[in-house]
């Protein structure tokens, strides 16, 4: 379970693998599944993290833009933590 800016959601993450795949599904309500493709790729002494979000059927462009902004903030927070920041 994970608290998001929108709700408390069940989250299922891809099984541990050697490909850097961190695909995950959020299940905020029964019958609602949000799929996000995520991958970590080595790059020199660091890595690149790619997160692909999909606009769900019926989701407004404004709402999707908010979701993308939240995802970008999450990636920035991850970068800070991984680089030893607070």
Structure description:
This protein is α+β, with helices and mostly antiparallel strands and 86 residues long. Helices cover 26% and strands 38% of the residues. The chain has one helix at 61-82; strands spanning 2-3, 8-13, 24-29, 32-43, 46-52. A hairpin with a 2-residue loop joins strand 3 (24-29) and strand 4. The protein is globular, with a radius of gyration of 14 Å. The model has no long low-confidence stretch (mean pLDDT 89).
Features:
alpha+beta, globular, 86 residues, 5-stranded antiparallel sheet
Percent of residues in helices comes to: 25-40%
Number of helices: 1
Question: Helix/strand-derived class?
Answer: alpha+beta
Record the strand order, biggest sheet. 1-2-3-4-5
Let me know the average pLDDT: 89
SSE layout:
Layout lengths: L1 E2 L4 E6 L10 E6 L2 E12 L2 E7 L8 H22 L4
Antiparallel strand pairs: 1-2, 2-3, 3-4, 4-5
Quick overview:
Helix content is 26%, strand content 38%. With 86 residues, the chain is of the alpha+beta class.
